[in-house]
Structure to design on (801 residues):
């Protein structure tokens, strides 16, 4: 084990190994008389001097800043150990969230002490080796003896107040976690904030509803499906039912406070919402939390409501609570003599299968969250008063057990065999109420304060530590091979590798990246840096892992891909010039093999980058590009679109006679673009531009993606938007309108310019050149950020070694 001290910030230091003689030049203010190259030391030969003299005649001066320049400005520091010259990983916050979706193998019986707790120090993260030989960090929590003794597979879905949803697999105690990226509480105007279906859970917070599958990519529900005013809607999960094809459908209630209306929807596990065939909610009906069977109390009794809209009256009484097989019913005769009965859901009133039970007076009329145990021998409910408490009532004896706290609308989280119930602890963690002893056991305090808890009963524990993969689809089938692999993330803490040709998404847990705008992803070989838009959080990721960086270890914005696609450009934290960028490696390690480049320019504005390592800036009315070496003049006019091989510019002469041209960035050759083109209205790139310049022109320089401002372009469907984005064929000037790419996100082309992928409105969109159409990638939601990856990022996933 490497005992070297933790390294300081990889982006701030005052020392760096010097591997070659330094050379440097700075861009000075052209208004000064010292506009010349400034060597850092002696020994400049005559060739350099001649070049410097020529450069001094230009409005600006350029050169290279050497490693010594880095030393002077104090940007990097690296620990050195006489016994070990390796560098450790960047600092990790002690409170960093769990960063994987794997689970532990089942614990052996002899791996516990007499109390039922593990006899080793296994309460913290453990490691397990995957089939590819790599290690992944897994987490397991210690269980009290009564919970560990329950061998029937049960999964607890636990929502913590820190915005994390944990899936606890019993009896192993392994944990899979997803960071939702929000600490908002549930909407819950009656149905609670979470429901657990057989293969996924639904969690609803204020403003966001997420489906968390047992394995696969979490899905953020597009609330626009609920109609106008959806952003202010309150969404409450009421349970799950089984569709006609055996699929899980979540039952939700949607309340719109703008007009005091409510409606019900059925939502698939991939986030598609549809109104049910028959209304579930009205002023005269109220649903019972559905666990495979949807029950509605209405005039005349309680009814089972099937997915196809048909209804069948189950009883002329009222269903108070239900499990997947039995119901608790209150029924009264003509003289209003009432009784409570437990019976199979499909049994008829008066059936011999009914069992008359006594309900304690404490239940009264406040039967919030009444739930039947899976074995039908006990009920639980939340009793309100000085403080909410969960109460279990033994149906045979009438004995009660109290403990933990209750959640309004919760339908209980029972152990599979009905031996006890899980509820929120009064402080941190989970309370288990055991029926046999009547005792309460608190565990999982490391989960923090729990706001909601639910349970499901799988056939077996999910102990596969491989990275889960799920299928993706397309709104229309692609015409040919796409040739693009993507790394994506969104509001919730998940990274997904999208293989568009294989139509799969492999996902793993990661820290969330808060901020009003999307995060930035920069990929360098097998490693990716993800930085939030507010620069307050970020992490390094490899395939299947994510490691949160300490706040003082984050690069300074603006950031972009580094020279030649290696490392990244970041703002010099001690720089004073208008543009003061430095290139460093993506993981903050020694830069002996990296291109130590800087760009220092006064009286200039950084506009963006080309996605391949060149920074683009404006100075004195002209646009330049540089990788840290001598800048290249792109145009003295307006930059419309930028590609790796060419640029689209608009230059105007006297009398405002303007022309559009494509300029080859290597040869300087110019190709005019036809007059009277829609591109005459294209907006020029400025520092206020929200959409990334990267990829705005295809690699073969034949297509440009541009903002057409307020130009009224009507698409094939007759739709017109206030701000039109268009894909323009530069040879024919043909244009199709598209949804605007998301803020700061690149447009990613394949090698032959036949497809381009970009993020828009939480989705991945594909421009297909052969059909001049846009295809939506389905099965992947919450895509706010994306980057292109190569096979070196995920050799195991791509089958390469």
């Amino acid at each position: 084990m490497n005992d070297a001290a933790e390294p300081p910030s990889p982006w701030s230091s005052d020392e760096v190994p010097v591997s070659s003689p330094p050379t440097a030049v700075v861009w000075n203010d052209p208004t000064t008389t010292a506009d010349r190259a400034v060597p850092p030391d002696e020994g400049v030969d005559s060739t350099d001097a001649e070049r410097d003299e020529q450069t001094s005649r230009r409005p600006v001066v350029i050169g290279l800043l050497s490693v010594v320049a880095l030393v002077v400005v104090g940007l990097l520091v690296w620990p050195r150990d006489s016994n070990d010259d390796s560098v450790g990983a960047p600092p990790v916050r002690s409170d960093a969230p769990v960063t994987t979706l794997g689970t532990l193998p089942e614990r052996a019986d002899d791996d516990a002490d007499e109390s039922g707790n593990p006899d080793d120090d296994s309460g913290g993260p453990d490691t397990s080796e995957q089939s590819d030989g790599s290690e992944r960090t897994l987490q397991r929590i210690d269980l009290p003896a009564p919970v560990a003794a329950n061998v029937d597979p049960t999964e607890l879905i636990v929502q913590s107040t820190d915005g994390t949803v944990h899936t606890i697999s019993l009896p192993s105690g392994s944990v899979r976690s997803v960071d939702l990226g929000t600490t908002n509480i549930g909407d819950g105007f009656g149905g609670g904030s979470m429901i657990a279906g057989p293969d996924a859970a639904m969690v609803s917070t204020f403003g966001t509803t997420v489906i968390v599958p047992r394995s696969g990519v979490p899905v953020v529900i597009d609330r626009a499906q609920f109609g106008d005013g959806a952003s202010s809607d309150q969404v409450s999960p009421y349970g799950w039912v089984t569709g006609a094809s055996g699929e899980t459908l979540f039952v939700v209630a949607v309340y719109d406070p703008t007009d005091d209306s409510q409606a019900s929807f059925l939502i698939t596990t991939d986030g598609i919402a549809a109104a049910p065939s028959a209304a579930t909610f009205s002023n005269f009906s109220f649903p019972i939390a559905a666990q495979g069977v949807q029950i509605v109390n209405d005039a005349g009794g309680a009814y089972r409501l099937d997915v196809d809209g048909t209804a069948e009256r189950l009883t002329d009484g009222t269903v108070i609570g239900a499990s997947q097989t039995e119901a608790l019913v209150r029924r009264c005769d003509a003289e209003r003599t009432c009784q409570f009965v437990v019976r199979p859901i499909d049994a008829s009133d008066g059936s011999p299968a009914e069992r008359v039970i006594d309900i304690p007076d404490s239940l009264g009329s406040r039967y919030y969250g009444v739930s039947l145990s899976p074995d039908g021998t006990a009920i639980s409910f939340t009793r309100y008063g000085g403080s909410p408490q969960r109460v279990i009532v033994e149906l045979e004896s009438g004995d009660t057990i109290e403990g933990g706290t209750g959640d309004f609308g919760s339908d209980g989280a029972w152990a599979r065999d009905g031996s006890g119930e899980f509820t929120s602890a009064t402080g941190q963690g989970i309370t288990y109420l055991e029926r046999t002893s009547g005792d309460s056991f608190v565990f999982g305090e490391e989960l923090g304060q729990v706001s909601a808890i639910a349970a499901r009963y799988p056939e077996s524990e999910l102990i596969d530590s491989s990275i889960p993969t799920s299928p993706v689809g397309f709104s229309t089938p692609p015409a040919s091979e796409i040739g693009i692999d993507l790394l994506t993330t969104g509001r919730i803490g998940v990274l997904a590798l999208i293989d568009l040709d294989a139509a799969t998404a492999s996902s793993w847990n990661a820290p969330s990246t808060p901020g009003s705008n999307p995060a930035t992803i920069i990929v360098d070989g097998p490693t990716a840096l993800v930085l939030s838009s507010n620069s307050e959080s970020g992490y390094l990721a490899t395939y299947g892992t994510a490691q949160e960086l300490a706040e003082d270890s984050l690069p300074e914005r603006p950031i972009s891909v580094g020279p030649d696609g290696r490392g990244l450009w970041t703002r010099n934290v001690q720089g004073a010039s208008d543009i003061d960028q430095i290139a460093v490696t993506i993981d903050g390690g020694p830069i002996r093999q990296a291109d130590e480049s800087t760009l220092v320019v006064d009286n200039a504005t950084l506009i963006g980058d080309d996605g391949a390592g060149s920074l683009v800036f404006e100075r004195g009315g002209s646009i330049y590009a540089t990788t840290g070496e001598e800048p290249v003049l792109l145009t003295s006019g307006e930059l419309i679109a930028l590609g790796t091989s060419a640029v689209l510019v608009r230059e105007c002469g006297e009398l405002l006679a303007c022309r559009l041209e494509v300029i080859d960035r290597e040869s300087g050759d110019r190709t005019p673009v036809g007059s009277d083109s829609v591109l005459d209205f294209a907006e020029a790139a400025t520092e206020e531009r929200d959409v990334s310049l990267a990829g705005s022109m295809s690699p073969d320089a034949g297509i440009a993606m541009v903002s057409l401002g307020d130009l009224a372009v009507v698409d094939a469907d007759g739709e017109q938007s206030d701000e039109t984005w268009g894909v323009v064929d530069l040879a024919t000037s043909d244009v199709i309108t598209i949804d605007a790419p998301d803020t700061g996100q690149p447009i990613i082309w394949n090698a032959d310019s036949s497809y381009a992928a970009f993020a828009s409105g939480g989705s991945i969109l594909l421009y297909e050149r052969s059909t001049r159409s846009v295809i939506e990638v389905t099965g992947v939601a919450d895509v706010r950020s994306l980057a292109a990856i190569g096979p070196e990022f995920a050799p195991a996933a791509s089958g390469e070694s």
